[in-house]
Design goal:
The protein is α/β, with parallel strands linked by helices and about 650 residues long. It is about 35% helix and about 20% strand. Strand 17, helix 21 and strand 18 form a beta-alpha-beta unit. Helix 7 runs parallel beside helix 10 and helix 10 crosses helix 11.
Length: about 650
């Protein structure tokens, strides 16, 4: 069995307080692999805010039993839970060797919410402290706690929250705490929140900016149009202050700390759009950063319509950047499997897409260590899943972490923190194509990026081809040192002399280059995380030309040409993603919504090939090509992934 951690994100409704063991035995009996951690979710902070230390047994609000107090799941009606029962549940999980994290969102179950659901209870503490609610750019109050605001008497909420959290974690003996939506990051995009008079006054004072005497919408527009970068820096500092104080409380309680990533965003966009600095989180002594992947959900909801890259390609690019930016931080992959309150179920409605997410994220490597970028998975949400469904997921996770052991046959993405800082400043000035967008477009056009690393990782692998994004933003000495390598160094994005293009270097000599005009964007930044940042970028042909250029100087699998079948169906290779490893493992994904007889070329002659997954059912077809490589064809289901293993004539050295 593979060495990976398993986390289960769940609500109290997933357990049963009418059973002696609180339903823990039944929950575990359905799983092929016991979880290492359970994460107990609460939509609101009321359980902490209204907590009275030393209080005798008491009943929790309905919203603590289930997300937004939904009345039932597939197993039972929502139950009323008491403090003594929660302590019993945690003790039972601990008896099975499972640690339990408390996870909070910053939402508020309002009086209006309760009335709409025919409930008599709601977050009365939050209702009494509307000075803490988030103020939107249109002037409305949003039912969310803004963690860096202050009470009416001038004291800070973050200090109050930290004290309450420490006491609660100790009293109930949780193993740890996990920052969830709205606490890990700004719940709203920085163009949407938080624009209360208190926050605007602090901003103006700290940055010496005279705010116009106007209503909230006009002041918000002034900031967004005139001082967007300063606003980003200010709110990032506010968010970081809260995170540090809350983290200190968790550690004072002797508990572990985890944190959800910022709305699926890479290090640059997490700061620009959501005021979350991953370096701050790293310094908070995290046990793990939970990296969200919601590609299946976004696809099912239709939210990716109009985008020219898939959410999965963007998520893969994000993970590569995150690991290289946080080389010493444990990353756990969060798979959005199902959520009855949000009414999606990738597990049952598009199971191949769930498997593709798992394989795509779990097989990417970190060059500095030779290990995978992520060290485990978190299932969200974990209630109401059958034994058969758990078996399928556990088996898929285990296969993904077991395979492959070899070196990715792709350029190695090299990360540089100073370049990211420059990128944020450049984006604020001219909205140029950001790193995540560059990488996602390369993935979409067939570049099989499957690993990343730091300068140290690149130095350990002198024969590996490198990929550098936006070299113009890099410190010159570091960049020049990489160009001295004999192995090809691929550069793409902003080059020297303010040119956008792609280059290939070896031994400090430029071997080839292409350039492209950037098409200015006419779009404006949106509020929703699933929308890409608007930016100036080259036309679609440029990305394909990049991949062709890189393929000329480095060996990696390449997609076949479009072709017709039965003279009625046109199979387009843009739906195909292929990434391979030099131990003979190859993953073939179909991003389209129809069966795809995928055609692609390997990097070496193949002697024989087998499928490790259910599809393809028939033997994989292979054709010897004129260049000595092998062409393969395997039928892949819609949104699915086939895992192939083939034997080559000359196996290479492995890093895993």
């Amino acid at each position: 069995m593979s060495d990976w951690e398993k986390w289960c994100w769940i609500e109290l409704i997933g357990f049963d307080n009418e059973q002696a063991d609180f339903g823990v035995g039944d929950f575990l009996s359905r799983q092929s692999r016991k979880p290492d951690f359970v994460v107990l979710l609460s939509h609101s902070c009321e359980v902490i805010n209204a907590y009275v230390p030393g209080r005798a047994d008491f009943a929790f609000l309905p919203g603590f039993s289930s997300y937004k107090a939904r009345p039932y799941n597939q197993e039972r009606q929502r139950q009323e839970w008491r403090a003594s029962q929660l302590k019993g549940l945690l003790a039972e999980l601990k008896r099975h060797g499972i640690g339990t994290f408390l996870c909070l969102f910053n939402g508020i179950d309002t009086k209006e919410d309760a009335e709409a659901r025919n409930l008599t209870q709601y977050d009365s503490w939050a209702e009494q402290h509307k000075e803490l609610w988030m103020r939107l750019s249109d002037g409305r109050l949003s039912p969310c706690i803004c963690p860096w605001k202050r009470f009416v008497d001038g004291t800070s909420y973050e200090d109050f929250f930290a004290r309450q959290l420490e006491l609660f974690l100790k009293d109930f003996d949780f193993a740890g705490f996990m920052f969830g939506d709205g606490l890990n990051t700004s719940r709203g995009s920085l163009i949407e929140a938080e624009f209360s008079p208190e926050t605007l006054a602090r901003f103006g004072q700290e940055y010496g900016i005279s705010m116009p005497e106007a209503d909230v919408p006009e002041q918000a527009q002034f900031i967004i149009s005139k001082h967007r970068l300063e606003w980003c820096r200010f709110l990032t500092a506010c968010q970081s202050s809260f995170l540090k104080k809350a983290a200190g409380a968790v550690h004072n309680a002797g508990k572990l700390l985890a944190c959800l990533s910022a709305w699926c965003k890479d290090p640059m966009e997490a700061i620009w759009r959501y005021a979350t600095d991953y370096q701050t989180l790293r310094d908070c002594n995290l046990y793990a950063l939970i990296v969200e992947s919601s590609a299946g959900t976004v696809d099912l909801e239709g939210w990716n319509d109009g985008e020219d890259t898939s959410m999965l390609d963007r998520n893969r690019a994000t993970l590569l950047c995150l690991k290289a930016a946080l080389p010493d931080t444990k990353l756990i992959q969060l798979h959005c499997v199902k959520d009855d309150q949000e009414q999606y179920c990738v597990l049952r409605h598009t199971p191949p897409m769930l498997a593709t997410e798992i394989f795509s994220m779990a097989t990417m490597k970190f060059a500095d260590t030779g290990k995978t970028c992520v060290e485990g998975v978190e299932c969200c949400l974990s209630d109401g899943i059958s034994a058969e469904e758990w078996h399928i997921m556990d088996k898929t996770w285990d296969m993904a972490f077991s395979l492959p052991k070899g070196t990715p046959e792709s350029p190695l993405l090299v990360w540089e923190a100073e370049a990211m800082k420059r990128e944020i400043e450049e984006y604020a000035r001219n909205r140029r194509c950001n790193t995540n967008s560059v990488l996602a477009h390369l993935l979409a056009n067939g570049l099989p990026l499957a690993w990343s690393g730091t300068m140290a990782g690149a130095d350990k692998l002198p024969d590996a081809p490198l990929l550098i994004v936006h070299p113009a933003f890099w410190p010159k000495e570091k960049f020049k040192r990489l160009l001295c390598r004999k192995s090809p160094v691929f550069c793409v994005g902003m080059l020297e002399d303010d040119v956008f293009g792609a280059e290939v270097w070896s031994e400090s000599k430029r071997l080839a280059s292409i350039q492209s005009e950037q098409i200015p964007t006419t779009e404006t930044e949106t509020l929703r995380f699933w929308h890409s940042l608007p930016d100036a970028r080259p036309d679609a042909a440029f990305w394909l030309d990049c991949v062709k250029l890189f393929r000329k100087y480095a060996a990696f699998p390449v997609r076949g040409k479009d072709y017709r079948f039965y003279d009625i169906i046109n199979f387009k290779n843009r739906h195909l993603r292929v990434w391979s490893f030099d131990d003979g493992i190859c993953l073939v994904s179909n991003m389209g919504h129809h069966y795809l007889p995928a055609r692609f070329q390997t990097t070496q002659p193949v002697e024989n090939v087998e499928s490790l997954t259910f599809y393809p059912c028939l033997p994989v077809q292979s054709i010897e090509l004129e260049d000595g490589n092998t062409g393969l064809s395997a039928k892949v289901p819609p949104l699915g992934t086939a895992v192939l293993r083939y034997k080559t004539a000359s196996p290479k050295h492995n890093i895993g």
